[in-house]
Amino acid sequence: MQRNISLGRGLLVAAAVVAGLVAAFYAVGAHAGGTRVVMTAQNKTLGTTILVNRQGMSLYTLSAERNGRFICKDATCLSLWKPLVVAKGSKPTGAAGLGTVKRPDGKIQVTYRSGPLYRFVSDHKRGDVKGNGFKDVGIWKVATVHKAKASSPQPAPRYGY
Known about the structure:
Elements: H1 2-33, E1 35-36, E2 38-43, E3 48-53, E4 60-62, H2 75-80, E5 81-83, E6 85-86, E7 92-93, E8 98-102, E9 108-112, E10 115-116, E11 118-120, E12 140-142
Parallel strand pairs: 1-7
Antiparallel strand pairs: 2-3, 4-12, 5-11, 6-9, 8-9, 9-10
């Protein structure tokens, strides 16, 4: 009986060690690879590919906010536009052109092509883009995916036969 108890404890310790190693592996891998907070989605209303958060809600940028300049920082603005934030030290992933910037309140906000990303409170379901074109101190636009422009193919040479 004593042998069974010792064997059981040994297996329990081994299982705990393995579980800890697996958890450490995924924690390091997630941090090194980044945090997926943004995805792309085809928006039928706009007829283009847009950025969305993990819940599939549209993400917006404000035309007047670029390169660390914040306009949306008071309670009124923040009651309508919710910043997409991540933990300090996180690297956002999910689309090319993502980065981060420190907000005036100290939080780390995700950016797309240097424009801070927000969610609009009146968008209640996936595909809603009710904030697109909203004007106040700038123009709010849905963050659309900018594809690299392909070079124009050269016309085939014409021979005058």
